[in-house]
Design goal:
Structural class: alpha/beta
Shape: globular
Low-confidence stretches: 318-328, 473-478
Radius of gyration: 22 Å
Largest sheet: 7 strands, antiparallel
């Protein structure tokens, strides 16, 4: 069995390799192929993984998967059974532009939320689509597991080429459900669980709305319990009173929508943005790892990883993230469980990013009827984040209760903005890009949308090349 990792020179790739090499889920992988456009970073991560492999072998691990690396995409994915997509177009340096352009206009500067996320999508979607076309040619039977952010809209774009064989993953929803399960004394997402979990939303915009055990919804009792809510990271971030009033536990990224001004103040008060921190930290790591006089690449990587994880979402947290909140394996563990269920047929229950209706139900001529959609009010080809059962036959989204008007409105507004960016990424239309930036719920201004667009064109060569020469109509003045 072959696994290809796109973005194989990325900093977190050794975590994926370790999960694969230790057969953490009982699945044996014969080959791991790393692909990256940056040969230097690819070589550094290969050295880290080789050091990790040596330690695993010394500790008595079973035969390790063969490791290969290449800057040729076709070679990397040819014959692959699974492809993990974890690309970052422009690297951490481009993320700093995403953040600073928005912050310079008094808007939220964050990687996946707000205009920064749209800029990230705009330069990433063309690359993701090209990768999907190469996979369709070189590995037509492969499952693609997308880590690339913004995961929802990137997954949606890749599905236009590969259909239902593309699945997006994120570890934040499953982390929320696991924390709730611990408080209730049960594994809510175990393969043998009989609990009913209603989680619905888009990637980084979702809610846990009910947890039914033995016919009883246990969530209202949890929301009424101060001590219980103190153990749930999302409730601490958003506020206990709000989650009670809203009647649901939100994904942690709702902080940026519900406490926008506070988030902006904290980001601007910091000496650097998250992107600037990572650009320096990871830049130092890659330089240090290439220095033969330094500590081993593996040891340096571990030191850097610890610092990175300890400062995750620092602008939204009043305290260092609790150990139990980062336990559970992260996105690599979620990906391995998904991969294992598909390969072995052993069922899993997971929260994943999937189409609102099966790709086969949607054609150019006709949309899937509402009865076949998870959320009838949203387009059939929109990608949603919901609980799924995964087995050897594929990924099976589970039904959700009707979505409340307020949540539906937030989901619709965000996805409409992202779809305008998707249109711009495919067609090169500046007008579509302008609409995308202007109509994002955290912007809602044609004037600011125009300034964002021009700022990102100036700051990102990829976006400038995509949208070409020319300008956009001036917004009306008051």
């Amino acid at each position: 069995m072959k696994l290809a990792i796109l973005g194989g020179g990325g900093f977190r790739v050794p975590l994926v390799y370790e999960a694969v090499a230790t057969a953490a889920t009982g699945l044996t992988v014969d080959e791991v192929a790393l692909y990256d456009v940056d040969a230097s970073r690819l070589g550094t991560i290969t050295a880290v993984i080789e050091g990790l492999g040596a330690q695993l072998s010394a500790s008595g691990a079973a035969a390790l998967p063969r490791l290969t690396s290449t800057t040729d995409l076709h070679e990397a994915v040819a014959g692959a059974d699974f492809v993990f997509s974890a690309i970052r177009v422009g690297g951490a340096e481009a993320r700093t532009v995403d953040e600073r352009v928005a912050l310079g206009l008094g808007l939220l500067g964050q990687e996946t939320i707000g205009p920064g996320g749209l800029a990230y999508a705009l330069r990433t979607i063309p690359v993701a689509l090209e990768a999907a076309r190469v996979i369709a040619e070189a590995a037509p039977g492969a499952w693609v597991i997308n880590f690339t952010n913004p995961a929802g809209i990137v997954t949606e774009a890749m599905r236009t080429v590969l259909g239902d064989r593309v699945v997006g993953i994120c570890d934040t929803p499953i982390g929320l459900v696991r924390r709730v399960g611990r408080l209730l004394g049960t594994n809510l997402v175990g393969a043998d669980s009989t609990a009913s979990v209603d989680y619905v939303g888009l990637n980084h915009l979702g809610w846990l709305r009910s947890v039914t055990i033995d016919g009883e919804d246990r969530l209202p009792g949890l929301l009424a319990d101060d001590a219980a809510l103190e153990e749930i990271e999302e409730a601490r971030l958003i506020g206990r009173d709000w989650v009670r009033a809203d009647g649901a536990l939100p994904n942690e990224y709702l902080f940026y929508y519900l406490h926008t001004e506070q988030a902006i103040e904290r980001i601007t008060a910091a000496a650097t943005t998250r992107g600037e921190f990572l650009a320096k930290q990871q830049g130092d790591f890659y330089l240090g790892a290439a220095d033969s006089c330094c500590t081993s690449p593996l040891d340096l990587w571990r030191e850097t990883l610890h610092e990175r994880e300890a400062t995750y979402m620092a602008e939204s947290r009043d305290e260092e993230r609790r150990e139990e909140d980062v336990a559970g394996g992260g996105y690599q563990e979620v990906a391995m469980r998904l991969m294992t269920a598909l390969a072995t047929g052993r069922p899993e229950r997971m929260i994943l990013d999937v189409g609102n209706a099966p790709a086969g139900a949607v054609t150019a001529a006709t949309d899937a009827p509402p009865a076949r959609r998870i959320v009838p009010e949203l387009p059939a080809d929109a990608v949603l984040e919901v609980l799924c059962v995964v087995d050897g036959e594929g990924v099976h989204p589970q039904p959700v209760a009707p979505v409340e008007l307020g949540r539906l409105g937030m989901m619709s507004a965000l996805r409409a903005s992202e779809r305008a960016i998707l249109e711009a990424a495919v067609t090169g239309s500046r007008e579509a890009a302008w609409r995308g930036f202007a109509t994002h719920p955290l912007v809602s201004s044609p004037e600011l949308g125009a300034k964002l667009l021009e700022g990102y064109i100036a700051g990102h060569p990829q976006i400038a090349a995509l949208l070409g020469e020319g300008g956009i109509a001036e917004p009306p003045t008051r």
